Amino acid sequence: MKIHNFSAGPGILPHDVLRKAAESVIDFNNSGLSLLEISHRSADFEQVMQQARSLAKELLELGDDYEALFLQGGASLQFHMAPLNLLKNKAAYINTGNWASEAIAEARKVGEVNVIASSEDRKFTYIPTKYTIPIDADYLHITSNNTIFGTQWKEFPQAEIPLVCDMSSDIFSRKIPANQFSLIYAGAQKNMGPAGTTLVVFKKDILGKTGRNLPKMLDYELQYKKDSMFNTPPVFAVYASMLTMQWIKDNGGIEWIEALNKIKAKTFYNEVDSNPMFEGTVEKPFRSYMNGTFVLKNTAVEQEFERMLKEAGISGLKGHRSVGGYRCSMYNALPLESIKVLTNVMREFANKFA
Ligand SMILES: *Cc1c(COP(=O)(O)O)cnc(C)c1O
Hints:
CATH superfamily of the largest domain: Type I PLP-dependent aspartate aminotransferase-like (Major domain)
Distance between the termini: 28 Å
CATH architecture of the largest domain: 3-Layer(aba) Sandwich
Order of helices and strands: EHHEHEHEEEEEEEHHHEEHEEH
Structural class: alpha/beta
CATH topology of the largest domain: Aspartate Aminotransferase, domain 2
Helix content: 25-40%
Number of helices: 9
Strand content: 15-25%
Low-confidence stretches: none
Bound molecules: pyridoxal-5'-phosphate
Largest sheet: 7 strands, mixed
C-alpha cells in the first residue's frame, strides 16, 4: 500500500532523491566506492560540497556578498552560534513559538536579549504585527515558520538592523527576499535533506564585530575560510540535500515549488474550513503553508478517524506532543495526491459522523 508521509520532521524527501542517495551509498558516481568510504577531500566530494553551497545561494538568488555553509549541530546549535558570532551589545527577538523560545533562551546565555513581541498571549496562534525594532540592537531574530503551532510569517519585518531567521521548516518553499536577511539558518531534515547538516547562509559583512575569541567549530568566519570543510562534513546529509536542491531547480525552481505548495495548502485548508468535523487552530492570515494544524471538534469519534487515516495509508498526522490535535505537514516533496487522499478521508469521515 502507498504510504502518504505527513511527518513534521524528519520529513518527506523526493523519491528520486532517496533513490539516488541510496545508490551513492553503494557506488558513488560509478567509482566502485561508497560515498561513505571515500575522503571528504576527494575531488568527487569537494564537488558535492561546492555544488550544494552554490545551489543554496542560487535558489535564494544571493550574490557574492553572501556565503552558504553546511554545518553540523542542527538548528539548535545555531540558536547559540548565531548570538556568539553576532551579539555584541544586545539582540532583539520575536517569540512566535517553541523554537523561537529556544532561540531566545540560548541567546540569553550569550548576552542581552530584548523580546520585542510575542504571540504567547494567544498560544502562538498568530504572528505579531505590532512591534518596534530597536535600532541599537545588533540584530533582530525571527522564526519564519512555526513548525509546532502552524503559523508562518507572510511578510517579513522591514528592519534597519541585520535580520536573522530560523527557516528550518520552510526553507526553499517559497520566494523570499533573501537579500533582506543577514543570516538564515535551517536544519536540513524538515524540507531539504536528512538530519545531520544545517544550512547557514550569511552576509559576509556581518562577521567579526563582537571581538569574541570563538571555538573554531563555532566561528562562521573560520568555517567559511575553510570552505565549509574545516573538519569532516556530514557527507551523506550534504549530498542528499544537494540532490534535493537540484530536484527543485530541475523542476522549475522556487516558483514551481511555491505554486505547488500553494495549491496543496489551499486544498487542505479549504477542506478544514468547509468540513463540519474539524477546525483550524491558528488565525487565518498566518496559516502555515508547511504545517497545517487542526483539531477534531468531537473527540468522541477520534478513534474512528484514526482508523480511517490508517486504512488510507496516512502516516505522521499527529500533532506535536505539546499541542495535540493533528498537523498536516506539507513539505516540498509531499505530492498533491497525498493531500487529496487526506481531504477525501476527512470528507468521508464527515459523511459518516457529522
Ligand atoms: C525542527 C526545528 C528546529 C530544531 O532543529 P534541530 O536541527 O533538530 O536542532 C529549530 N527550528 C525550527 C523552526 C524547527 O522546525
